[in-house]
Amino acid sequence: MSSVANPGQKSYFCAAPGCSSDDRKRGRYGYMAGVQFFAFPTQKKAPNARKKWVELLRRENFDPDRKARVCSRHFVDGKPSKEHPYPELFDYNNFKESKQVKCY
């Protein structure tokens, strides 16, 4: 993977307040090596899950578009799982360290 985003290539940024994760950093910074970006559940297929994700972000008047993502650093298991399907690790709860991704 190239460390420089290609023109026209999608760049993802984490929608969580206080998070500086974006996919352009993966090739440049070691702490970003294992970080993945997950799309919000869709309004059509999973409206309750989408609402919960948005509530947990605690961003005023935030309505994620189809490009909005939450990075793996905010999931207890490093990704949405059956046990922890929602992003739970944020600055407001002292950003507990996930099992999969080390946060520095």
The residue-averaged pLDDT reads 80
Strand content: 5-15%
Give the strand order of the largest sheet, numbering strands 1, 2, ... along the chain.
Answer: 1-2
What is the count of β-strands? 2
Mass-distribution shape: globular
**How much is the radius of gyration in Å?**
14 Å
Distance between the termini: 22 Å
Structural class: little secondary structure
**How large is the count of helical segments?**
1
Oligomer: single chain
Sheet having the most strands:
2 strands, antiparallel
Following the backbone from N to C, one meets helices and strands in this order, namely EHE
Low-confidence stretches: 1-8, 98-104
Q: How much helical structure, as a percent, in the residues?
A: 10-25%
Task: Give a written overview of the molecule.
- With 104 residues, the chain is mostly loops.
- It has a domain of 71 residues.
- It is 11% helix and 6% strand.
- It has 1 helix and 2 strands; from the N terminus they run βαβ.
- The two termini are 22 Å apart.
